[in-house]
Amino acid sequence: MIPPSARAWAAGQEAAAHTFVPLLDDAIEIVGTDGHHLQRVRRLRAGELVTAADGAGVWRLYEIGVIEPGRLQLRARGECRREPELVPGVALAVALTKAGALDSVVARCTELGVASITPIRTRRCVVQWDAAQAERAVKRLRTVAREAAAQCRRATLPEIAPVGALADVVGRPDLVVADLDGGSITEFPAPGGSTWTVVVGPEGGLDPAELAVLAEARRLRLGPHILRAETAPIAAVAVLLSRAREMSHEWPV
To answer: How far apart are CA 199 and CA 186, in angstroms?
Structure first.
């Protein structure tokens, strides 16, 4: 078990790159797509430092030893450390939208620190994936999240859940709905649990029947303007995580 004194942010470590590996052994090898990216695209050199994480919050500093085409051998230059948990956290339930826009939402929200993202079907969604399309899309979104987490040097990968229905999130504790008629984030108390779940609708918003189902959820106003479907989820996550930062001692200054 990693003691509390060993908690630190991978992003605060001086390193040339960040990657994900299954095991944080004393000596590891990076091959495949990651090896190609670090060796051929990033052009890392022997002697440079990189951080590697297991995707569950634990990370370690390594030095690059041997480099071959598409392959890097790393040697540990520190003990395993754990990234502090963001409490309260933010989970996002976002209405389906066109693929490129949803990719952008996942990437930007991963950078911000979202805990999980659930794509949901709503009545006004223009996108209507069948089961096979939904499975392929979620697989792609998980790749997008991993790449964004490596870019921003995050040690914990967000969960990208299978495509669900709005009914799947109704009843979750500390549920928030992005709504032009909602209240200010300054009025939000700390969630009763450890995570807010924010629901963001499609272009045109949630319909009256869906809003009625979510009647018990707190409403959050993101500003005076009507935001695009790909802008609103990012804004909602940013606003809630900003509020969370005010309530937590784990966040970096």
So the answer is: 18
Tokens representing residue 184 in the block: 């200010």
- Residues 22-32 have pLDDT tens digits of 999 999 999 99
Sorted by sequence, the CB contacts under 8 Å of residue 90 that are 6+ apart come out as 113, 114, 115, 195, 196, 197, 198, 237, 240, 241, 244
Asked if residue 250 has pLDDT above 60, the reply is: no
> For residue range 124-173, what is the model confidence (pLDDT) as tens digits?
998 889 999 999 999 999 999 999 999 999 999 999 999 999 999 998 99
3-state secondary structure of 219: strand
Map out the domains of the chain as residue ranges: 4-82, 89-247
Q: What is the pTM of this model?
A: 0.93
Look up the CATH number of domain 89-247: 3.40.1280.10
Backbone angles phi, psi at 222, to 5 degrees: -95, -5
**Inter-residue contact 113 to 91 (CB < 8 Å):** no
| CATH number of 4-82, picked from 2.40.240.20, 3.90.1150.10, 3.50.50.60, 3.90.190.20 | 2.40.240.20
What DSSP string describes 71-137? EEEEEE-S--EEPPP-SSEEEEEEE---HHHHHHHHHHHHHHT-SEEEEEE-TT-S----HHHHHHH
Helix (H, G, I), strand (E, B) or coil at 166: helix
Cβ-contact 243, 185 below 8 angstroms: yes
